[in-house]
Design brief:
The chain is α+β, with helices and mostly antiparallel strands. The chain has one domain: Sandwich (Jelly Rolls). Helix content is 34%, strand content 24%. It has 11 helices and 12 strands. Strands 1, 2, 3, 4, 5, 6, 7, 8, 9, 10, 11 and 12 form a 12-stranded antiparallel β-sheet that branches. A hairpin with a 3-residue loop joins β2 and β3. The longest helix has 16 residues. The two termini are 24 Å apart. The structure holds fe (ii) ion. The site of fe (ii) ion has 6 residues, from loops.
């Protein structure tokens, strides 16, 4: 798996200290890393305690590895994510693939620099433990060079959308996507089809509009989904976390994955500067 010790160097505290930032001043310069900030682990635990987790596990299984919760995050966590998403607007990388997608994204590498609270939330043991309960799998962090490990996706211009797709795993094991609603001043919907890879169940369409703090969690290879186009003066931002069951990737898949990320999401500089330093990038599609 990845090397958490190496990745964990940047935290909100260390970044604040390194920058000489007082807690209050962090709000403007360090997106979402303000001190006084919610402890992600504790905040997640406080919410999970209130759920009927046995039922949620059954729901996840009954829906062929899909779950939607309208109200998941603690309000203080949602507030931090909203602040971070707005502060990171200048960092958004815009992409346009005719007939497939149009929108913006901010990769984990930028988040590590400017919004380490998000990286901490991604690594929350409470969060990962809860997701393991839902899936019955042991979940691992995505490798350090995977720009999708945690990323923000922006729908800010008319027509921003992503067409029907799966979050295909290029890894040797399964790839799960956790989507958190951050900003939704839009008419965008997540349309999906359950059971498309389950021969024993008929396909079942669904559609949700995910409010800030809402959650969608699914196995990327099993859920066919899309985001419908944004209209004029709309804004939608979602945060996705990617967890895997086996972080190994065949070399030829890595090449495809890196090219896809560079063209469709984060740009060549983001993807291949990481590639040069370590090994290659990753796979998949955001929502
Ligand atoms: Fe997706």
């Amino acid at each position: 798996m990845s090397t958490p010790a190496q990745e964990d160097v940047i935290t909100s505290n260390s970044l604040n200290n390194a920058a000489g930032l007082a807690p209050a001043s962090a709000v403007s310069g360090d997106a979402g890393a303000s001190a006084g900030a919610a402890d992600p682990d504790r905040a997640v635990a406080s919410r999970i305690r209130t759920f009927d987790n046995a039922k949620l596990r059954k729901d996840f299984d009954d829906q062929s590895a899909f779950l939607y919760l309208e109200d998941f995050l603690a309000p203080e966590v949602t507030a931090q994510l909203i602040a971070a998403a707005r502060a990171l607007l200048p960092e958004v990388n815009r992409n346009y693939l005719p007939g497939h997608k149009q929108g913006g994204s901010v990769s984990r590498h930028t988040i590590d620099r400017l919004a380490p609270f998000i990286a901490q939330l991604y690594r929350s043991k409470e969060l990962i433990g809860w997701l393991e309960h839902l899936t019955g799998d042991r979940l691992l962090l995505s490798p350090a060079d995977d720009p999708h490990a945690y990323a923000l996706y922006y729908y800010t211009k008319p027509g921003d959308h992503i067409g029907w797709h799966y979050d295909t795993s290029y890894y040797d094991g399964r790839r799960y996507t956790l989507l958190l609603g951050v900003i939704d001043e839009s008419s965008c919907r997540l349309d999906y089809e359950l059971h498309t890879r389950n021969p024993d169940k008929a396909d079942e369409p669904g559609s949700v509009q995910i409010p800030p703090g809402g959650l969608v969690f699914f196995d990327g290879d099993k859920l066919r989904h899309r985001i419908t186009p944004a209209l004029e003066n709309e804004m939608r931002v979602s945060l996705t976390f990617e967890y895997v069951t086996d972080p190994n990737m065949r070399p030829w898949r890595r090449v495809i994955s890196n090219l896809k990320d560079a063209i469709a999401y984060f740009g060549f500089r983001q993807v291949f500067s990481q590639f040069a330093r370590r090994r290659g990038g990753n796979a998949g599609e955001g929502v």
